[in-house]
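Q: Fold this one first, please.
A: Sequence and structure below.
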Amino acid sequence: MGQGTTQGGLSFNGVSGGDFGSRFSWYVEAVQRRVSGNWLQSTVDPSVAAAPRVVVVFTILRDGTVTNIQLTQRSNNNSVDTSAVRAVRDSSPLQALPAGYSGSSVNVEFWFDFKR
């Protein structure tokens, strides 16, 4: 994720409730690594030292395709917001959903904390 204390985090909500993250923690970690790795701080305006949390929600389909990307909490800085959405978009497709998961998709809330 680069330098500083920039961080990202996420939560999953599957059809069987909130247990997706505990049942498939390896998948959650893989998604976090992929999206965080695609979050390019270099695309953020260099004059920005820090920004409020950005929250992006999206859906992962059974085959790993990312859809329904929505910005639900803005940082009030367009370059930070755009960078966060781009990180999610550029992560598609992700790994297919786990075989042990019965749903056809899972909803994800991913947050980005930007600080240089």
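Q: Good. Now the second chain.
A: Here it is, same layout.
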Amino acid sequence: LEDIDRGHGELSIRQADMNYFKLGENVATTPGKVVFQNDIFQLIQYAPTTETVAKTPMLIVPPWINKFYILDLQPQNSFIKWLVDQGRTVFVMSWVNPSPALKEKTFEDYIKHGLFEALDAVSKATGEKKADTIGYCIGGTMLSTALALMAKKGDDRVNSATFFTAQADFKESGDLLLFVDDEQLEAIEKQMDAAGGVLEGRAMATTFNMLRSNDLIWSFVIDNYLKGKDPARFDLLFWNSDATRMPKKVHLFYLREFYQHNRLAKGEMVMDGETLDLGDVDIPIFMQAGETDHIAPHN
């Protein structure tokens, strides 16, 4: 009953002890401050821990489906803390949890007023013209799209790009392709219209959980309901339960242009009057795949 109440009438199974973790206290604890913000994101700059730092700053672009702290869970497993301890000046984009007021925002808006303004802010804060970048999940998909657009425009502000379990070619997107036919996209659009022009975070979280139902649904049904166990203090699953909304136009563009038609990889995507070609991108690229990732298959 508590889980149904928390899900506002829909079952929202607890995957972790939601009362144990507190942002800034025992999760997302690497010291930093907001140095820039607009209506779709805040830019966090993390405090240095070394006497000297590398000349080129690092900008991390996380997914806007979840919160920014996936790479800064607890000190012992925080990638951001590790980067800072290596002498890097690290910036992370923290995307807004959009209300219906942002329903008209587009994927191009997220590039121009998201990534591009973040790059401007990083340059202003450090005095450096270029930044190394990391794109994670859908943040990486956006980064690859942006790099193709930047190549067309002669914009060379990105020094290198690293991708964490991020797709640019959606030809083999695994089980998520089951959710992107015309009928299901039409149903998703109606669902977003009913919610005021946004996709509720728990809707996307449920879809992702269904892709690994044994791990993310049934194991908790057994432990929580049949065995009466309390959920574990698991930082990653706490983060996984902290989902955010998405603007209608951004999400439909993502599902149609990438998943359904795979236009970026085919060289057919048009943005800002340009037909994008990933082959135009000539900066150093590093790609990291997750062997068991259920959203971005490694093969």
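Q: Anything worth noting on the second one?
A: The chain has a mean pLDDT of 90.
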